């Protein structure tokens, strides 16, 4: 439990490993995940380290696995998850078998893919030729069947309307009735459908209109063998005269990536070719099916093991990458490493090293020595699935300085509680709690799904925070007696009404007066009395006064707790001076001013109350109750305002004015102590150290043992004293001004609580209330629609948006108002060599 309240004690160790056992020992440490290695070769290039070839081999194996994975995903084959435990890192000799397996799979798959692509290309060509023979036969049949050239044969190739579909076109003829027989040459081919308009335009311009083009769309899409995409194409046939035009037409077709195919002139030859093409297509279909089946079998076999292979390769790569951080001794037979380890886990690490040595068959045991160092160790806080989310909230502000107080365990309670003060609603809190409970209950199935959504992962990572925020909000909702802006009458009201029925039903604003006989002189047992829901005139005034004071009280106690935690830090680090010149003035400053203001609130609540007409003492009634804010301002200004109300006392208790003056003077005297105390004691220590150094030098000179000129030992301390003054001045100003601003900052608890309650009330009055007032059959339908709108607004705005707003404000109160009192956050995180972390980060990178 010590590491929960303070980070783990870390120690720097030196590790000696025999070369043969190094791989197995590092593998065991990676499974353990408790060692952070330091780079002992910072000046050596990554390509000049000892195990760079092994890392390259791992990179190559990983590349082959990614290629296999891409092909498996493209075919939609499910990859089996790793059953049971994650496989251990394989031995170095197994790398050769893995490389051979991956090489064989990649070569086989590439060969199959190449053959399949060639077959698909051949199939595409035959399919296009089949369509050409069919479409051109239609063109020739139209002509031989007596189809004369119509007006469409003389339409301009370049149309004013680019979207106008072009059919048969004849250009450049001297006579409209001229037959197609005068065009003895033609070419036929296939082109992408979207290129047809530009293709026709280019033919017109380049051939000066001396061509005749017919084109028809291929109805079914064709598969591109390179990209496997479905493309739409069109068949075209171009008639022209002369070799010069033939060369020009072929170049244009080549430029537009149109594929030309031979097309016989005689109908019998075309039919014979079409029959041959159909036969070859059938044969190709059979061969393609067999090729695809073989490819599928290869990928299915690979899909069963690819997850395991990825884990093994990544573990091997991580081990060799870690070994590159080590140093070689002079004999080249021993590897030397330096690492940070938790002091409590030294025995566990020793056992892991022993297991690695036994597994490698080495006879030389590893040596793990603790080292003394002045370097700041990394910060390591042990967490579990419950505390990790709260610890991450702290780390988002800054990693704790080594061994300083960890705010996370206190945040587990204070964070959801402060959130709930702003979000207090039994209904909305229940929605949030149910959502958080569902995520916690379905934790393992949801983790197994590995949902690739950043927003979902944020919610799921903070599922325990969401659950606690919902539960605490339900509690504060009961205190506020607020459920979807309505109240629960559990214990019966402590008020009685003296209005008649017509006033209750017709009056738009009623108010409650505690100084009347309406109040039964005993409070509601738990929370706010539900009758305040009906007091439209003074409900907000009452709730404002209540929530404002509660916010200040919570804020002052929260800050006092933060200052008390700083004492724990000072005592642990043995900073005796800081206890006297920082903690004591700081706690006195808060107590004498702001805690006194909290006491005044309690005095006002207990000393002043309702005073019905039959009570004679007016001085203890609400009529004479002073304003706490005015009293506090007058206290700071040493000012006394006489109570202008008759029969009322000027003060809340005897001796109040003298006590307040003493508190203010004492609080102001704490400021120079905070400002000059620490620099004064540091200067005093430096002088004492310097005088001791001179005395020892003089004593050694008298004995004849002094050699050379004496060097003042505290020269650098004299330079630092200026920085100490500046730092202390900044710290003092920040604390004094921050005490005022931070206390006021806690008023956000009141402001957001008021805003949330008012938004809930607006949603109820504007939507659901009108739906509930509707009557008849139509009213039921209207209520159904209105309830859906109200529920959507409640979840989206009042739960999600208001919840996010309250969450951010709570985060600020913890980071700035609370943690600034004791938390430095100047450390760096312990990042152990752990296979689990490496595999998790690799998995997230793939997603």
Automatic annotation (TrEMBL):
Superkingdom field: Eukaryota
The top of its lineage is: Eukaryota, Metazoa, Ecdysozoa, Arthropoda, Hexapoda
Chain's role: Essential component of the vacuolar proton pump (V-ATPase), a multimeric enzyme that catalyzes the translocation of protons across the membranes. Required for assembly and activity of the V-ATPase.
Where it sits in the cell: the answer is: Membrane
**Keywords, comma-separated and alphabetical:** Coiled coil, Hydrogen ion transport, Ion transport, Membrane, Transmembrane, Transmembrane helix, Transport
The name this protein goes by in its record: V-type proton ATPase subunit a
Q: Which InterPro entries match?
A: V-ATPase_116kDa_su (IPR002490), V-type_ATPase_116kDa_su_euka (IPR026028)
Q: What is the first-listed, main subcellular location in coarse terms?
A: membrane
Instruction: Return the Pfam families for the record.
Output: V_ATPase_I
Q: How does it sit in the membrane?
A: Multi-pass membrane protein
Segments traversing the membrane: 417-441, 462-480, 550-571, 583-608, 659-677, 780-801
